[in-house]
Amino acid sequence: MGQIEWAMWANEQALASGLILITGGIVATAGQFTQWYFGAYSIVAGVFICLLEYPRGKRKKGSTMERCGQKYMTKVVKLFGPLSRNYYVRAILHLGLSVPAGFLLATILGTACLAISSGIYLLAAIRGEQWTPIESKPKERPQVGATIKQPPSNPPPRPPAEARKKLSEEEEVATGVPSGPQENPIPVTDEVV
After folding, report:
1. Model confidence pLDDT, tens digit, residues 135-175
2. pTM surpassing 0.85?
3. What angle do CA 31, 32, 33 make, to 5 degrees?
4. How crowded is residue 135: how many other Cβ atoms within 10 Å of its Cβ?
5. What are phi and psi of 48, to 5 degrees?
6. 87 and 10 in contact (C-beta within 8 Å)?
7. 166: phi > 0 → left, psi -120 to 50 → alpha, else beta; which?
8. Both ends of the chain: CA-CA distance in Å?
9. What distance in Å separates the CA atoms of residue 64 and residue 59, rounded to the nearest whole number?
10. Which residues, 6+ apart, have CB-to-CB distance to 109 below 8 Å?
């Protein structure tokens, strides 16, 4: 049984938390809540979290599905170096970003989700995981001559290749005549009257 890679779960949770914070911030700001500035803060924090969490990290084993357009954001996240790679830093950052948004009812769900993702990142950091970017491999172009195959000589429906070999060998043994084109021993003439 394989080990759970907690960073993948934390990444998904944090990305959803950022979207929830943005939504709650829009509701609080547009609804002109008494402490609307926490809503504006939630919008900015949510956008920052979404930009930070959009690129998925590479898994240790197996393949990782890259998000659409991730390669552009990966370059930006890589610029921060160890600050973006270390999950201890992400855990503290997410916990710190979640605190001000907790003072407003519209953004408290985003706060709770972000605090949970912070805890998951802390667990991932304790287990020794770190963010590594998904590097795209250059695609090898197939050789033109190697991909062209000869068309089949036998029209469909065709039996499988093994069955064809067995049938032709059995016919040769039974008749004593090699298989292939046959000649008609009786001459045929076409007389039209």
Report:
1. 766 666 666 666 667 777 777 777 777 776 776 666 666 66
2. no
3. 95
4. 8
5. -60, -45
6. yes
7. alpha
8. 85
9. 6
10. 20, 24
